[in-house]
Amino acid sequence: MNIVVLCKQVPDTETKIKLLGDSSGIDVEGIKWVLNVYDEFAVEEALKIKEAGKAAKVTVLSIGPKRAEEALRTALAMGADDAIHVEDAGIYGADAFVVAKAMLGALKGLDYGLILCGKQAVDDDMAAAPQMLAEMLGIGQVTVVSKVEIDGTKIRAHRDIEGGAKEVIEGQAPMILTATKGLNEPRYASLPGIMKAKRKPLAKKTLADVGASVADAKTKIGAWTLPPTRQAGKVFKGTADDLAQRVAQVTKLLRDEAKVL
Amino acid sequence: MSNVLVFAELRGTEPKKITFEMLSAAKKIAAASGGKVVAAAIGKGLAGLGAKLGPYGAAKVYIADGVEKYNTEGYANILANLIKAEAPGVVLIGATATGKDLAPRVAVKTGGGLASDIIGYRMDGANFVAKRPVFAGKAFVEVSFVAAPAFATVRPNTMPVDEPGAGAAEEAALAADLGAPKAQVVEVIAGKSGKLDLTEADRIVSGGRGMKDRANFKILEDLADVIGATVGASRAAVDAGYADQAQQVGQTGKVVNPTLYVACGISGAIQHLAGMRTSKVIVAINKDPEAPIFQVADYGLVADLFDAVPIFTTEVKKLLAS
User: Fold this and answer.
1) Domains in chain B, please, with CATH?
2) For chain B, what is the total number of helices (H) and then of strands (E)?
3) B321 near A CB under 8 A
4) pLDDT per position as a tens digit, A215-229
5) Which residue, A9, A18, A64, A247, has fewest beta-carbon neighbours within 10 Å?
6) Whole-angstrom Cα distance, residue A186 to residue A126?
């Protein structure tokens, strides 16, 4: 069984988001682009499955502009075998349907039993393209996965639902699983790994090659806004001696002023 | 003239709060688009649901009865069949564990567009325009739809519930046709507490690195019990093993928006602030007066949390008793 890991390059979570002057998008100046943190869990899981002798090859796939190649190189440096980059200068920020359709096209002809990816990309937070792809492929899915067990072609995964509860879901390969934090601890790429990654195969395709177009989008993004800045409120400083008094004061304010108690 | 369909999410046979939130929004959307509100529910023993949903604006509820447990592909099949027949203009689904899993598949099956986790909307004439957070709430975008129906998953606690009116919704049977799902839920492992999930919680007490140890979360649980809150944690606390992953609030955890958020021993990293900044009232307890959390807190207490939290619990108890 081979594994395909879907990867997205996103701004680092430390990024302070600034908008362009016309509010048409974010100002990408100075942004540090990284492999989506949830996709790192997916890459790690794929490598672990391969290392356990349950998969033969790990291919990483990304739909993104030229710079997305760096995220693929990161995954290759972690240990993935090869990469496919569907490159398009205007794809960043595209509708989830377009991305799913591009992935569908890119998967055509590949032999895989498992598709892994992060439960969401930490930029658009849509958490939709993997499920859309599963539907297009007509295969089973498990989202928000914190544990994976592979037994031949039988796939069993734990899905985190509300309040710490979990659903255990079973299906037959091929399936799509979306990884959440807690699934594993992603490894860091080693220096030899980084050197080796430079020579690993990375196939380039265009959106047209995979039969997708941004014109297929089913939604359109309009104006961007920033959240209202929260004003700092009342801060009660003092000593340990007057602590009880300060706490009582805050408690009263929560009832009488904020009206939340 | 198009209807608004609400997928009624249930806990057993009772509608969850998010269902009432969506019905209240749907009523306004339907009024602007000249249609009606219809609901769809899947589960077991759902006769009588019309009387529960009608007062919140549903004119009709389609019920697929006899389905024991959630199945992504099966639920998607049932909903897509209804949507193809009913052709609603807008479909609202909860941005919950179920809804987020389900909605993208239904959107593909029916050719619609999707906006996930919306926190607001406006009507542009008869057109529905959704507002949703990106970058965990560091920014917002408006989403308009070029394909119908317009699917939106709605974040819990973001839309007000209207006062219930009178009247029951008409009940109509919906074929519980699950199709042939490729994956099945074989077991459900219950969570530790019967408390509300962080994403649904109206009150949250969270602990950070300052908690120093897993056992110390007991003092937060005591406070949470008194005010009816769910206990959350910062990434630092989760990574240090003081709390479970399911409790993490922030950009790589859960984005929450309770009425009251009490942050204890949390410094306020940008990723954490992104996850809780929409809370209505924020209380911060931290030793460090320079902690960034104080910049977003409505009420800040510069104090050692191990001294302050137990006093706070006692004070709230007194206040609630008086």
Assistant:
1) 4-173 (3.40.50.620), 203-321 (3.40.50.1220)
2) 8, 18
3) no
4) 999 999 999 999 988
5) A18
6) 23
